[in-house]
Amino acid sequence: MTLQQLKYLLSIVEHGSMLKASRALDVTQPTLSAMLRKLESELEVSIFDRSSQNLKLTEIGECIINQAKVVLNTADNLKELVHEKKNLIGGKLRLGVIPTVASYFVPDFINTFHKTHTEVELSVIEMKTSDIIEALSNAEIDMAVLATPLNVPSLLEIPLYYERFWAYVSPELKEIYNKETLTASDLPLESLWVLAEGHCLTQQIFNFCGEEEKIKNIYTAGNIGTLVRTVDRVGGCTVVPSLDIANLTEEQKKNIRPIENPIGVREISLVVKDDFVREKLLNDVVNSVKQFIPSEMIDERLKKFAVRL
């Protein structure tokens, strides 16, 4: 078994056909088919279901593909480690970001990181937390920015910053709109708009509001901007992370109220697999983040120390 065989195998799966994969790899289709047969013979398994008209993986084929991604990622990490020791930063960086961070984080990060790392092939993907955990485990992405803790033993969490929640209140809710500050108990759960289950922000709201079963208006898709517009049109209230406030108009900012007792805060971390080796790249990402996230929000340890793997 060789790394080239594994790369060819992943290309077949990625392109969904032998013909398309052979064209992408610039090899003949018979050569690709012979490689696949040789690999299956060596492993003594069928990777693809030959009884299906479509290119379909067998159950063990699914497992082989997942492990092949990990093996190839480990090989790439070895190359990148050597490059780093030679002070040559390059290669790919696949970064996952949760939706409730992406709206304000991604534009600034791309702008900041690219200024000093034009040689790095950067790819940023917006993903839900559960999908990020799976993608990191399967070596489909290299790093992720999301709310923690995750409590996943195979992942390493590096806290970046801490972000408060603020209430966004419709003027129609006069009783609480006229208050300068709100408590969590002030939020009217029967008219509180939140994101669908699966978004980390939803659970964080429940953590400091409590009584999840009383929240009736659960918006089943969308993002923070959509929730804000829902409050503008329909009424009620929602909860907005601090850094998303910059995306509001001056008129909308009049509807923002601080939440006290308790103060809702989420920890945003950079997360990698526990076998990640590209330490310099990791610190370059951290340093880029420190340039556009307000200093008072940055984790105190990152202000003083570099990250050590």
Q: If you had to describe this structure to a student in words, what would you say it looks like?
A:
The protein is an alpha/beta fold and 309 residues long. The chain folds into three domains: 70 residues, Winged helix-like DNA-binding domain superfamily/Winged helix DNA-binding domain (Arc Repressor Mutant, subunit A, Orthogonal Bundle); 118 residues, D-Maltodextrin-Binding Protein, domain 2; 103 residues, 3-Layer(aba) Sandwich (D-Maltodextrin-Binding Protein, domain 2). It is 45% helix and 18% strand. It is built from twelve helices and nine strands. Strands 1, 2, 3, 4, 5, 6, 7, 8 and 9 form a nine-stranded mixed beta sheet that branches. β1, α5 and β2 form a beta-alpha-beta unit. α1 crosses α2 and α5 crosses α11. It is elongated, with a radius of gyration of 23 Å. The mean pLDDT is 87.
